[in-house]
Amino acid sequence: MLTACGHIGLDWDSRSDAVIPGDGDDDAWGGEVGTGPDDSGDGDTGDGDKDGDGSGGSGGGLTRPGVGGMNGVGGLTAAGGSGSAGGGDGSGGKSSVVTGGADGSGGQNAAGGADAGGSGGAGTGGATQSGACAAPGEHHFGFDSSASFSASGPAPAVWGLDISHTMNSGTLSWTGDDGYYASGMLRAVIVRPAVPTNPQALYPRTSLAGKDLRGAQLAGHVYVQSGLEVSAKIFVQSDGYYWAEGQLTELTAGAWTCLELNLQEPAYADEDFDSSKIIGIGVEIARNQLSVLATPITAYLDDVSY
After folding, report:
1. Which of 147, 169, 223, 262 could form a disulfide with 300 if both were Cys (CB 3.0 to 4.6 A apart)?
2. In the predicted model, is pLDDT for residue 19 greater than 50?
């Protein structure tokens, strides 16, 4: 006898697990838990961040019965850029034979550098400026340009050595080093004269076209870099090369000295000197008359005024 058998239905959800992969930019997620007869679907593994920003993935299955999804793999951390080296030492201040250079500025940090730049080196040079004249004139010879000197001799607004009317023993030149007020001055190197009876001296001078300087006050600055027993004075010459002079002043090495000449009361004047017809202004720099020294003298002349 045949017995009819009923068909047993299989009624469960046969979908595969749903997957939400990591997007590579944010923290990675594990796959969503699958559903099945026993709620034990395996979550997919999320992809970790790999864009080099150093953040890792934090994946994991959502909490549901069954086996959760596996943690996503963290992103790789990019190596930081190397910092550039710090700035180097700043250069020292400009050096002068007269005034010491100022300290240089320190180097600046380079981009990304860890170390600061070093401090600037100190300038080297001579003494601090001093020796200001009490009553400088209104018209100044500042020697701020090489055009203010000529090896051919003096001319209007140009200084040089007048070998026709003075006995010079040495050389005169222009230098752009820092002078009394600014850059530029005359450099006088005085040596032992070839003729022993000649003065051990230089007479830097400029020319004027018969200028009226009655009652004028003249001034100038001299600096001795090397040499002992040295004196100087400022002078003027009138038409016919008649002289008037200021007081002879002892010079100190390493310092500026002011020279002055008041034409109302000069320390000396020739009988025929006429202050209304001045043809030259100059400065005498010389070894003291009674000195027995013969070593060279190096001196600087700057800022002559009337």
Report:
1. 223
2. no
Mean pLDDT of 165-179: 95
Please name the fold of domain 140-305: Jelly Rolls (2.60.120)
Given a cut of 70, is residue 167 above it in pLDDT? yes
Q: Which residues, in sequence order, are CB contacts of 11 under 8 Å at separation 6+?
A: none
By the 8 A CB rule, do 249 and 176 touch?
A: no
Q: What is the DSSP string of 242-273?
A: EEEE---EE--BTSEEEEEEETTS-SEE-TT-
Q: Phi and psi dihedrals of 147, rounded to 5? A: -70, -10
The C-alpha atoms of residue 12 and residue 81 are separated, in whole angstroms, by: 57
On the question of pLDDT at 23 being above 50, the answer is: no
Instruction: Give residue 152's region: left, alpha or beta (phi > 0; psi -120 to 50).
Output: alpha
User: Measured in Å, how far apart are the chain's first and last C-alpha atoms?
Assistant: 153
Q: What pLDDT, on the 0 to 100 scale, is given for residue 205?
A: 98
Q: Residue 61: what pLDDT?
A: 42
> How many Å apart are CA 182 and CA 194, to the nearest integer?
35
pLDDT on residue 263 = 97
Beta strands 297-305 and 183-190 are: antiparallel
Instruction: Compute the C-alpha angle 215/231/163, nearest 5°.
Output: 80
Q: Is the dihedral of CA 89, 93, 96, 98 positive or negative?
A: negative
Residue 99's CB: how many other CB atoms inside 10 A?
A: 21
Closest alpha carbon to 237 in 207, 195, 198: 207
- Under DSSP, the state recorded for 126 is -
Indicate the SS3 state at residue 77: strand
Other Cβ atoms less than 10 A from the Cβ of 230: the count is 26
In the chain, where are the structural domains located?
Answer: 24-67, 140-305
Q: How many Å apart are CA 103 and CA 120, to the nearest integer?
A: 6
Record the pTM.
0.62
